[in-house]
Amino acid sequence: MKRFIEKIRGRSIPSLYRSFYAKLWDYYYDYKYRIDTDAHVQLENLDISKEQKEHYYWYEGTKVRPLKKLFKHLKIPKDKTFVDIGSGKGRVLLIAAEYGFQKIIGIELSPNLYQISKNNVNTFLQKRSIAAEIDILNIDALDYNYTDNEAIFFLYNPFDEHILKQIVLNIKSSLNRNKRDVKIIYANSIHRKVIEENLKIVKTERISIYNVGFSIYDI
Description:
With 219 residues, the protein is an alpha/beta fold. The chain has a single domain, classed as 3-Layer(aba) Sandwich (Rossmann fold). A seven-stranded mixed sheet has the order 3-2-1-4-5-7-6, covered by helices on one side. Strand 4, helix 7 and strand 5 form a beta-alpha-beta unit. Helix 4 packs parallel to helix 5. The termini are far apart.
């Protein structure tokens, strides 16, 4: 809550309302399903190496309401494989399952966040009759073995431009092996130039929903 207060200080009334409304949705989502996706984890408390902490960022869950509205707006076919790179506590995986994606993959470096996300997914699926296949991998995103069928990649700014460039080049290699339509959804896209300079982009869309910014790329 302290970090939330710092974020909203000095903002306009409409902006404050949007942020507060989105935050209430986050609290309600965790309460409704008895899960833990909202609490932040600072970088110094992540169980990753010192070298990795130089490139990776702290955990903050993607806002529930903005992401739900974004999926609805994009009208993505639900038979596509969805990959969350830096899946944290698994909130995006759950929202993707609610949306209707049948194959969902989460990639998370931190063993602790990985275990929390596994618990969250299990608890969620006990409460919802959803047939989605959700796989979570406790690996470095750089080591992910692409099946070359992934179609939707989601990132909530999990690491710096150095790591992002390597991820983008891995996606590019996958596309070279199997040419297909791919969509990249990048929330809080402070390093978006890395994507724009290294991939052939067909369409770009930038959207702000309840003060959460998304850059969406059709590749």
